[in-house]
Design brief:
Blueprint (H helix, E strand, L loop, with lengths): L1 E4 L2 E8 L6 E5 L11 H9 L3 E5 L8 H4 L2 H5 L5 E6 L1 H12 L7 E4 L13 H8 L7 H15 L12 H10 L4 H11 L15 E6 L7 H10 L4 E5 L8 H16 L8
Parallel strand pairs: 3-4, 3-5, 5-6, 6-7, 7-8
Antiparallel strand pairs: 1-2, 2-4
Helix pairs in contact: 1-10, 6-7
């Protein structure tokens, strides 16, 4: 459904009991709500939460507070902002800038962008910036599948890969080349976010894959060390993608983390 807030339009989908504590799920660059983890969504709904998914906006870092317009428009006072990949950057900024709106922070597969941290290998970096052969839907899907193979992890091979038809459906639903490239560049041009993390005081869970080839494990450990009281959870064999086995493992620590947090809004 379409909602409007502060003159902006968002495409949003909700699942679960609307009276339940809310989870705002924000995915990586260029990701539509249809690309969100269905396994994580199902686990959260079954655990008694209302999950709000949305299409990412294509204006980079300025989107982090715009996302707060989504729960506003839905009449939700506060939420758990789950951020995956670039979504973790957005959720971290929300938690630092609007602590009165945040119940807890689960940050998944995200770095603080602090100076001196090692990033992805040159091979992975080149792969992310490689354009599809053409802008035809099939070439766009081929490039997407190549990226999943590049950032995944052999411990969780794509035995049940995201179907080509599912990816084609996403391209036909909406595809904007700049909606992928600009957010990627925005994440690279966010050098001061590490200075915001010590201002986050809500219950925080940082989840990271031990085998992440895009954002190395040390980045997740360093992120957790900067946030007061944060708990760190490393997932063996997890890369930077979300095949079914990994998606289920992500939900395993997130659900009890949410359950441990009082339902009220922080003062």
């Amino acid at each position: 459904m379409k909602i409007f807030s502060s003159g902006l339009q968002f495409e949003v989908e909700t699942a679960g009991d609307k009276r339940a504590p809310a989870v705002l799920l924000t995915m990586g660059p260029g990701r539509q709500l249809t690309a969100g983890s269905e396994h994580l969504l199902t686990a959260l709904v079954n655990a008694g939460f209302c999950v709000i998914r949305h299409d990412n906006r294509d204006i980079g870092l300025s989107s982090h507070l715009d996302v707060l317009g989504i729960p506003d428009a839905l009449g939700v006072a506060g939420a758990h902002p789950v951020g995956v990949s670039m979504g973790g950057m957005i959720s971290q900024r929300i938690a630092a800038a609007a602590p009165d709106r945040v119940l807890s922070l689960p940050s998944v597969m995200r770095s603080s962008n602090a100076p001196g941290l090692h990033g992805s290998s040159p091979e992975v970096s080149r792969g992310l910036l490689t354009r599809p052969k053409s802008q035809s839907p099939h070439d766009v899907v081929d490039r997407t599948r190549d990226i999943f193979r590049l950032i995944g992890r052999p411990a969780y091979p794509q035995k049940r890969p995201i179907s080509r038809q599912h990816l084609l459906d996403g391209v036909h639903r909406s595809y904007h080349r700049a909606g992928v490239s600009r957010p990627l560049l925005a994440t690279m041009a966010d050098p001061q976010r590490h200075t915001l993390l010590p201002r986050i005081f809500c219950p925080t869970l940082v989840i990271h894959g031990e085998g992440d080839p895009l954002v190395p494990l040390a980045c997740g450990q360093e992120t957790a060390a900067r946030i007061p009281g944060a708990r760190f959870e490393a997932i063996e064999g997890m890369g930077h993608d979300g095949p079914p086995g990994v998606a289920a493992l992500r939900a395993t620590p997130i659900v009890p983390h949410f359950k441990s947090v009082p339902a009220g809004i922080p003062a």
